[in-house]
Structure formats: structure tokens, C-alpha cells
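Sequence only, no structure available. Ideas?
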Amino acid sequence: MSGSPRGHQPAGRSVLRVLILEDNPDDADLEQRHLSNAGLAFTAVVVDTRASFVQQLAAFRPEVILSDFSLPGFSGESALTIVQEQYPHIPFIFVSGALGDEEAVELIKRGATDYVLKDRPARLASVIRRAIDEAEQRTRRVQLEAQFHQSQRLESIGRLAGGVAHNFNNLVGIMLNYAAFIHGEAVERAERGIDQEGWDRVRRDAEQIEHVGQRVIQLVHQLLTAGSQQIIRTELVNLNQVVGRIEELLRSTIGPHIEFRLSLAPRLWPVSADPGQVEQVLLSLAMNARDAMPNGGSFSIETHNLTIGQDEVRQHPGLSPGDYVCLGVRDSGAGMEPAFLEHAFEPFFTSKPLVEGGGLGLAGVYGIINQAGGTVDISSAPSAGTTITAWLPATPGASASTSEAVTSADQSTGIPPLAVSGPHVL
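Reply:
I predicted one. C-alpha cells follow.
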């Protein structure tokens, strides 16, 4: 039967993808007419075999499935089993003329969402709407639970990292004091001509201890950042101005072989943050991007305002209704495997050697944004690049002068800005 999308698609509305498993063309047309008459915006694909059903599950990616109970060579029960195994989040509704109540209850226990009798098709649109709403609520609940558990895990790891960092700091401070004492004593004795060659060796050894100690101190600072325990000095900040101040440094960091692009929104709202830490976020992401694109690519920074209403909260898990400033950083590099992506913000989860600072870049980004009261998200896929998006709460009642955008950075690139429409984020 038909494998091409068709349906009722009013302009300006979200179009629902409906997969119909039905061997009677008249019944399939009748179902679609009822959906159209009910004002439902949809596109439908009708199939009647197991092979075409499985194919369209992957190709059409339906948001709801309508299925007859009995078909020649295939059954609605078998279709339900396939969906439950592969796509359990898709609402599955039986539309049958011979389905008894006991059978229907048993099918619902096995995962069906609902059922509609063919002699009562007027219920179909309302059943679909309810099923879609419930599916969205389940998806949002799962997202919020996953985000909550990730936040708890990162918070625990951050506290551990911060505690270790404080102990490191104390011990390294003692070590550096002794190294400084030995260094000074060696210099003094060498200058006095007392076994000059031997004391020069001692001085060089002390300098190596001091050098390694300073590298440990840098690691301590990164740990404190990852644990959101750095001392911060917040002020009203325009993110466009922060980007403008370090634009040349960012360009030199990524190198001439990587295309640098800016899209800075005018009249950007101010946020309350430590500008030095925001610079640290940008530089850390620039270095990550450089390492991910040894053969060249593109590196993009975007800012824009975003107001989230009550109706839009479900599109932004973890955010409450309100005004936000979005900072998006995107690269076209190697991307990340899903297993890596799940742990990307955890300290020390990296493929880089620890002595090179590996494993604390993204953890530090998370710590800084979290300490500023914002949230940060990452999306990536192998060979598809990586996008980091941070949402910082806009500061209410800030002066208009603080919100003035810096547009010179855009003009100086000579590259067209990124296309931005509505509340799109990188």
C-alpha cells in the first residue's frame, strides 16, 4: 500500500507524523478524513505488510501509530511487539472493528496506548491528542529525571574535586616553601664559592620542584573551578563585550587554519557573572575546538536573548520561565561518541593526558556556568562537531547602557553572521 506521506497540513502549525498499519484502503482514508475534519495537522504513511511497516518506522519516524488488529500475513499484536522493543516512546493506538474489551485491556497491558473501534471513529482525533500530550509529558519527565541525576552526580564529583583541591593546595604550598628555602640556600652558597658546582645542581633541582609545584597549583585552580568553588567577583556583564575583548586572543588560539565566525545579537541583556571566568570559558572551548580540528574547520560563537514562557518550558529542560542570555559555541570538529558525551562534564573524563590539563576543560566550563547561576548543555556526534550552549539568567532592571551590544566584533570578521531565527540556539 501507499508509502508516500499525505495528509492535512495547515500552514504555520506543527505537523504530526502518523503511520497507519491498515490493509483496507477505504478504512485508511476514513481515518485520515476524520483527523482532517477534527483540524489535526498531520502527514500520514499507510502500510500493510511487516516489511513496509519496519521500513517506515525507521524512514518516516512516526510520532503516533494507528494499527488494525488483524491483517493478512501480519497482525497488530506483532506490530506492537516490534514497536515496544525498538520505539517504546511512540504512542500505539489500535483502530479495529472486531476488538473486544478484554482483548483491548490485555493489549494495553502489553504497551498499547489506547484503542478506537472503527464504528466510533469520531473519538480518534481526541485519543491521538491525549496520547501525544501524555508522550510529551513522559519524555519531559525522563529528561528532567536524567538532568537531575546528572546534576547530582556532577555536584558530588565537584565537591570531591574541590575537597581534594584544598588539600592539594595546602600540601603543595608547604612543598613550594621548602623548595624556595632550598633554592635560596643553594644560590647563596654557590655565590660564596662553597662547592659551587654541587650547589648549582641543588639549585636546578629546586627549580624543577618549583616548576612542577606551579603546574600542580594550576591543576588545583582547575579543580576548584570544576567544583564551583573558585572565588568569583561578579558584576554586570555584557557577553558581547567579553567576546570583543578577547576576540584576537581567540583567533590566535584556534589558529589561521580554522574559520572564526561571530553572531552577536544587538541589545544583548546583561548578566551577573565574573568576566574573567567567562573569558576562561571561551578560551577553554577554543582550545578544545582547536584540538578537535587539526586539519581545519570552523569555530563559531553566538549570543542572543531568550525569553522562556510557561508554555515553552518543556522545550528547555532544567530552565524555569524567565529571561536568559544564551552563549553558544560550535565547532565542526571530530565530535564525541555517545558514551563520552554522557560524562563530558565530569572532571578527568578525557582521552588527553592529565599532565596536559586534559579532563578539566569542560568540567571547568560546567563549574563556572553553574556558579554563575546558569545551566549548560552539550550536543555532539562523531564527525558532526560539538556545540556547547550556556544559558545565563538575564539581570532584571539593568541600565540600558549596559545592554548596548558590541557590533564591531561582527564587522571585523568579514564573515557573514550565523543565521538565527527566534529562540534557536546553537
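Residues 235-413 form a domain with the Heat Shock Protein 90 fold (CATH 3.30.565.10).
Hope that gets you unstuck.
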